[in-house]
Amino acid sequence: MLSQKHLQKIELLSDTVLYPESVAFVRRMIQKEKCNPLPATQVNGLLNIALTLNYENVRNFAEHQRERNWPSNKRDIKTFYTHLEKELVRLEQRLDTEFSLTKDQYGRRVSSEDEREMLGRLTREYVQHLLAENLLAEAEIKEQRRFQQGPYRR
Hints:
Layout: H1 4-31, H2 40-50, H3 55-67, H4 75-94, H5 112-149
């Protein structure tokens, strides 16, 4: 079971590190990689997996989506999951190094079960922020298109 200190640190990391990184990820996918925002079906699937607090399930889902043979009009999804998989690996690597979450208040290594739970919680936070930004980006794009069409076209 995670300590209150670890839970508070995860909340702090969510707000100060994971949120801006997830926003940057979505913006990079749209602006640099020229991807469309993730469609609602993918948003729902990814969110449902992330809510299990199981990092391995999220990684497996991302890998499965990346490996699918997407039709040409949905190649953006493959690109998204290719990059997301790299971010998830980076998140796992940072658990001990940058985030310093693998030790308890006495400097002892936490259990592997606690490490998995922390990683699951960090992953959930990252994915929730990422999907919220994805929905915002989708709304902005729709608004831009509507504005470009003019007031009498729908």
